């Protein structure tokens, strides 16, 4: 069985910090990460989506975590076709047109430079490319995926789709074959079912090195409400126990399995991660 790592999609979320999960004396930037890394072995840097990560932060993250800890870094929004505010760019790039190929090249360069300390310290788990809901399957999308994989060839790439058609029954094998050809990990997700925007509950394995599952909660507002509404959910033990057979299967087929909780608010994600870990230890 591969190594199974459980964590959350952020350790700096404002609701988590305000929840009291971090004890007194460990609520500064360094204390929070050290406290988190004593309890979990992987975390997702979702802040990388909202602003370019920095080399300095990557160095600090490496210094503040034990050997073997993993950071899965979410790709900057401009690299996955999401709307991007100019204010999210470094100051010296804000005068550029967001469609300028030279700007895109520079953003890729700076994003990669920020990952380098994590790579060198052995802490880079994956780079998550989460594509938007309107990114549906077809020749144009496949061309984007090939171009992305070419840019990111030095990194362990994980791909999450938000358009359900990628994993529809009549399309799933083709999607899995495409990701295998790109040497990319297919990200499985847990979301509410029965909604127009629900992602199929599939767990494809497209890489022998890494499998990733992201638990987004089961809110009925998935795909329609505010961020808090979309991800607000408290997983029950029964809901998490239902995933145990699939997680074991994924761990049997990949060297590492990263299970990340993205449900909010407050401390819901860390509590869900703790419950799942307990279920796996007792089963």
TrEMBL record:
Q: Which InterPro entries match?
A: DUF72 (IPR002763), UPF0759_sf (IPR036520)
For this protein, the record's Pfam families field holds: DUF72
Protein origin, superkingdom? Bacteria
What PANTHER family does this protein's entry cite? UNCHARACTERIZED PROTEIN YECE, UPF0759 PROTEIN YUNF
Identify this protein by name: DUF72 domain-containing protein
Organism whose genome encodes this protein = Streptomyces toxytricini
């Amino acid at each position: 069985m591969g190594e199974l790592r459980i964590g959350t999609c952020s350790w700096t979320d404002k609701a988590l910090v305000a929840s009291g999960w971090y004890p007194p004396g460990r609520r500064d930037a360094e204390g929070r990460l050290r406290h988190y890394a004593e309890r979990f072995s992987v975390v997702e840097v979702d802040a990388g989506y909202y602003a370019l990560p920095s080399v300095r932060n990557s160095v600090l993250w490496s210094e503040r975590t034990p050997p073997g800890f993993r950071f899965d870094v979410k790709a900057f929004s401009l690299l996955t076709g999401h709307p991007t505010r100019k204010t999210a760019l470094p100051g010296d790039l804000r005068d550029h047109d967001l469609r300028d190929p030279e700007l895109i090249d520079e953003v890729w360069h700076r994003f990669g430079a920020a990952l380098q300390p994590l790579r060198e310290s052995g802490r880079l788990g994956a780079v998550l490319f989460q594509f938007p809901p309107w990114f549906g399957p077809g020749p144009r999308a496949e061309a984007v995926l090939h171009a992305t994989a070419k840019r990111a060839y030095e990194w362990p790439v994980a791909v999450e789709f938000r358009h359900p058609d990628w994993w529809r029954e009549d399309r799933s094998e083709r999607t899995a074959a495409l990701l295998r050809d790109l040497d990319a990990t297919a990200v499985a997700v847990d979301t509410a079912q029965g909604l127009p925007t629900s992602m199929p509950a599939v767990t494809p394995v497209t890489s022998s090195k890494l499998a990733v599952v992201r638990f987004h909660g089961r809110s009925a507002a998935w795909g329609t409400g505010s961020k808090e509404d979309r991800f607000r959910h408290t997983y029950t033990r029964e809901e998490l126990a239902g995933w145990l057979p699939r997680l074991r299967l994924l761990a049997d087929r990949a060297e590492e399995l990263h299970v990340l909780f993205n449900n909010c608010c407050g401390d819901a994600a860390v509590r869900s991660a703790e419950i799942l870990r307990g279920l796996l230890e007792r089963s």
